[in-house]
Design goal:
α10 packs across α11. The strands form four sheets. The protein has a five-stranded antiparallel beta sheet, sandwiched between helices. It is 45% helix and 12% strand. By secondary structure, it is of the alpha+beta class. The chain folds into three domains: 11-180, no CATH class; 184-340, no CATH class; 350-501, no CATH class. The protein has 18 helices and eleven strands. A hairpin with a 2-residue loop joins β4 (78-80) and β5. It has helices spanning 11-15, 38-44, 48-51, 54-61, 129-144, 183-190, 195-209, 219-241, 291-311, 316-349, 356-372, 377-388, 393-396, 406-417, 426-434, 444-457, 461-470, 489-493, and strands at 20-22, 32-36, 72-74, 78-80, 83-85, 93-100, 106-112, 151-163, 167-177, 243-244, 266-267. It starts with 10 loop residues before the first helix and ends in an 8-residue tail after the last helix.
């Protein structure tokens, strides 16, 4: 059996020796291909005819290492719920290598659930089918919503059980990312006092993600700013679709600005700023409304690792100056996030640029209405688009009292009319709003139904139907109406998500 050519060009393995442990995926008894992302394979320049079959199943399950791959487990640390763990690393994942996609962008190809590594810390390194298919559903939904994210290329069944609370069918996910560099990667070497390795990592990161900064006098400070700005924009996009990551540890904060790790994540239904779905987040550290604060906190941890590089020399005055410069970046994060958030909210309201204070108050009062009346977050925004088009009935039906939003709707329409001659007609405004306010999100109960059918009954049909709907989030049709309806309040109140380890 000959492996298809992935055209690997493995800079991480080549340029960062000592930053990882070379390792091989564990063989499994009976590989089978459960999911294959044809669109992503085409984007990556892969031969989907070869991969969408037995050879692909063998590769994606870990039984066949493709030619040119250099499997390795990356080293990283991380603050987990605020407590520092000096060594985490890829305990059940292996970076196979990197490919250059059709747009000329470098992309990581990683196996997740491929067995023990030197970083496993006593775990079995395996994964169950449910969490791996969850990552497909949520990451593909995020991609369709236009939110930067890692993506799923394939899921392969292993033909062997994994043991959690009960035996579950095993699976391996193939994940694609702009890179797997994390805040925790920098923390790993910084905590060991290995400043030269931090510098080597920073130089590699700049060359990979921000090559225009190479050779500039303040490239390390500029790197911090770029990462902060990417995270500010990313978290704003999360907030505007009601996404709750659930485990924003520093090892899950990417340098690229992509969303990574879809374990205890969920989408809000009734708008609740303090919503928490993760079973392990007992104190609400990673609640919906806390996500911008936690992102800033994590960026401060990145800044700490970069201080020796920003300072350039080990003198009290140089370090003091570096601290001041890095602090300015961290303190600017709320401003960058607020601007990105309001920009998205204006689009969701069908408005163009205006007075930030007035528009911010309009948004805040809209969200207060949703909160006070327990209105579904996604449907509230979507039905507002119907109201823009002249049909207010669907929106009013979401409120316990049909007139509850009257005063706010009057203000909103007045704000739209104030845009003057260049303003779009309301029908055009409604269409614009429907292009940014999804009708379909990964409703938690629908996700669980699909995963239960796959895990308990070996029935992938619900998974594929839901995936198709999620890949077209702005399309609203009668045959997909079931995917737009929220779960009951009782079901949402007791819903919890888990890490899937």
């Amino acid at each position: 059996m000959s492996a298809p050519t992935f055209r690997f060009d493995n800079t991480y393995a080549r340029d960062l020796q000592g930053f990882y442990a070379p390792w091989k995926p564990a063989a499994v008894p009976s590989p089978s291909l459960l999911f294959f992302n044809q669109e992503l394979a085409l984007e990556l320049g892969l031969d989907s005819k070869v991969l969408d079959g037995p050879e692909g199943a063998a590769i994606f399950a870990g039984n066949l290492v493709p030619e040119g791959a250099e499997p390795l487990a990356q080293a990283y640390a991380g603050h987990q719920f605020g407590a520092f763990s000096p060594q985490l690393g890829d305990g059940r994942a292996l970076l196979l290598g990197e490919v250059i996609d059709q747009r000329g962008c470098r992309r990581d190809i990683m196996l997740k659930g491929s067995g023990r590594t030197p970083f496993s810390r006593g775990g079995d390194g395996k994964a169950a089918i449910g969490p791996m298919l969850r990552e497909v559903l949520i990451s593909e939904a995020m991609h369709a919503l236009g939110i930067p994210t890692t993506r799923a290329l394939a899921v392969a069944g292993t033909g062997e059980p994994v043991y959690r609370q009960q035996p579950l069918p095993g699976a391996v996910l193939t994940r694609v990312a702009a890179s797997h560099l994390r805040v925790g990667t920098f923390e790993f070497f910084s905590a060991r006092g290995e400043t030269q390795r931090v510098r080597q990592l920073a130089d590699y990161t700049i060359a990979r993600h921000d090559p225009d900064l190479l050779g500039t006098g303040d490239q390390y400070l500029a790197l911090l700013q770029r990462v902060a700005q990417r995270q500010a924009a990313l978290i704003a996009q999360w907030m505007n679709v009601g996404f709750i990551h659930g485990v924003m540890n520093t090892d899950n904060v990417t340098i690229s600005g992509e969303t990574i790790d879809y374990g205890p994540c969920a989408f809000m239904e009734a708008y609740e700023p303090d919503a928490v779905f993760s079973s392990i987040d007992h104190g609400g550290r990673y609640a919906y409304s806390n996500q911008p604060l936690i992102a800033r906190w994590s960026l401060a941890r990145l800044a700490e690792t970069l201080l020796p590089l920003i300072a350039e020399e080990d003198s009290k005055s140089a370090v003091s100056k570096a601290v001041g410069q890095a602090t300015e970046v961290i303190d600017a994060f709320p401003k960058w996030h607020a601007a990105a958030l309001l920009k998205g909210q204006r689009e969701k309201l069908g408005l163009q640029g205006g007075d930030d204070g007035l528009d911010g108050a309009l948004v805040a009062d809209w969200l207060t209405l949703l909160h006070e009346h327990k209105v579904d977050f996604t449907l509230g925004w979507r039905r507002l688009a119907d109201a823009a088009g002249g049909n207010e009935t669907p929106l009013r039906s979401l409120f316990p009292h049909p007139q509850a939003a009257d005063a706010w709707l009057t203000r909103w329409r007045s704000r739209g009319e104030s845009e003057g001659g260049q303003a779009p007609e309301w029908s055009e405004r409604a269409e614009r709003m429907r292009r940014v306010n999804p009708a379909v999100i990964p409703r938690n109960h629908r996700v669980e139904e699909a995963l239960s059918a796959a895990s308990e009954k070996e029935d992938l049909a619900p998974f594929h139907r839901l995936l198709t709907a999620l890949q077209h989030p702005y399309d609203e049709s009668q045959d997909r109406a079931e995917y737009t309806e929220p779960a009951s309040a009782e079901a949402t109140a007791c819903y919890r998500t888990f890490c899937g380890t």
